[in-house]
Amino acid sequence: MITHQDLKQLQSLTKVPALSILLPTHRTSPDNKQDPILVKNLVSEATKRLDKEFTSRQLEPLLKQLETLVSEIDYPHTLDGLALYVSHDFAKLYYLPFPVPARVVIDQTFATRDLVYGRHREHRYWVLLLSQASTRLLAGTGETLEEVNDENFPMQMTGPGATTPLPYETDSSYRDDRYRRFFQQVNSALTLYENDSLPLIVGGVERQISFFQEVSQNTQAMSPRGYAYAGTLRGNFDRATIHELTPQVWSIMQSVQEAQQAEALQALDDAMGTQSVVSTIGEVWRLAHEGRGKLLLVEKNYHVPAILTEDGRFELVDQPGGTDVMDDAVDEIIEVVLAKGGKVAIVDDEVLSIYQRIALIFRY
């Protein structure tokens, strides 16, 4: 699963050639049998295009990286999309919990727009499983959970009361202070992962949750760069598998999403009363680019291609494709609203049928 940090790293790399291969994949058989064939075809296309632009000597390190990366694809455990990024000194693949169009991009930078848009469309959240033995962080996208394994997580408490015995004749306050210090470290590490205010589910035994809530402001209220406390899972999850955790986590997130959607629709009703809403995509486009978008509501599967005419007018077209056509104007609008400080609520299909599937509450 790709994180905000991954995107920042990919977008910062500018070594030519930067090869990006993206494709939709399948979670189940027999559909997933076609995935290796598509990968092979896209790799062949990439190699042919690279051969036309670069010498064999220039390409040798990159092609070795690509061959190794392709061999590492775990086809039985793919999700809805796959992204491979390769340059002379960088190679990484991502299993994506959302589909992306099949394409090969060779440029000065990696192609990340589809990943940015996919993240906007899906409900994302974090799951923090507390334990002095191994505090775990899981990234959630829709019903998909993936464990974070990096320099921060899993995080183990060390020293007295953990990897070594407590000093002789220490009281409970000393032990509690040790736990508080550890969970302060956990909280500090957690704030490194997102700038967004994403929902956070906290799991652990009652005492651990209590200590974490005591030292963490983020679990009490949403802060501009923090987390929205979404719920708790009580128990010991040191050995819990993703498969075991998913139903419990998803049950909490469904409730969170229902509440978020209800709140957004109530805001829309209120804004209708003050006539501060537009619901044609052309007007939404215009106000979004003027920086007036306060809250954008859009149905999850609403996509539409469009163009900007020579005189700057926004027009829908029948089919995506071509250098002048925005394959999905809705995703462009989402990006603009967020970039200009607005919020976005992705709602269920048909919820906005009377608003033509999209609505923008504007600031003034």
From TrEMBL:
InterPro entries: Bact_RF_family3. It comes from the Bacteria. This is Chemotaxis protein. It comes from Trichormus variabilis N2B.
